[in-house]
Amino acid sequence: MGGYFRRDQKGFTLIELLIVVAIIALLAGIAIVNLIPADQRARYARAAADTKEIVTQAMVMTSDNNQVASVACGVNPMPACLWDTNAPNSIVYMAAVTDPWAATGVTYPFIQGLAAGGCALGPGCVVYGAYTIGGDANDDSGAWTGLAGTTPLIDDLGNSTVVGCAFGPNITIANPC
Fold it and tell me: How confident is the model at residue 15 (pLDDT cuts 50, 70, 90)?
């Protein structure tokens, strides 16, 4: 029995193994905490790209049809009409996108309006906006106009022809635009 416990044998002690396990657990905890904001940054980056594309394609649709996008879509809702093959003009302007913050299958809220000054239909006269509902999964910006100097509320992110990318005041990540 004494041969099993010789001092000249190589190996790790229980204390050494516990220290290694504790260090690995500490590093894993730090990594997981740092990955959570990365998920939020990725969602906002995707939302910024999607909303910009929706606004761009709404402007293209306006130019193609010489009427604001919501009129060109007829009874089909914006922005889904941009990728609907059953739209009145049967032109698909972009691939279908959904809001990464909303429930599965929900698209971005869309707004449009005329810029101040009463100009005729043309570049800079129609203001389009699309926005994500943000990290709280609530549409806090239901009244957002998309006009210059305005921003979505709470943690929503918006985009329009006038203001580019606009953030709600409660977004705590770097600008994804």
Answer: very high
Strand pairing report for 126-132 and 110-114: antiparallel
Q: Which two tokens stand for residue 94?
A: 């972009």
Task: Give percent above pLDDT 70 in the chain.
Answer: 82
Domain ranges (residues) in the chain: 41-167
3-state helix, strand, coil in the chain (%, to 5): 35, 10, 55
Q: Are 149 and 137 in contact (CB under 8 A)?
A: no
* 4 vs 65: which has the higher pLDDT: 65
Residues near 109 by beta carbon (within 8 Å), at least 6 away in sequence:
130, 131, 133, 139, 141, 142
Closest among 56, 160, 64, 163 to 121, alpha carbons compared: 64
Residue type at 105 in one-letter notation: G
DSSP 73-110: TTTSPTTGGGT-TTSTT----S-----TTSSTT----E
Residue with tokens 């940054």: 41
**Which tokens is 130 given?**
């699309």
Number of other CB atoms surrounding residue 152 within 10 Å: 27
92-144: per-residue pLDDT in tens? Answer: 899 999 999 888 888 898 888 766 665 665 556 778 888 888 888 888 877 67
Q: What is the pLDDT of residue 27?
A: 92
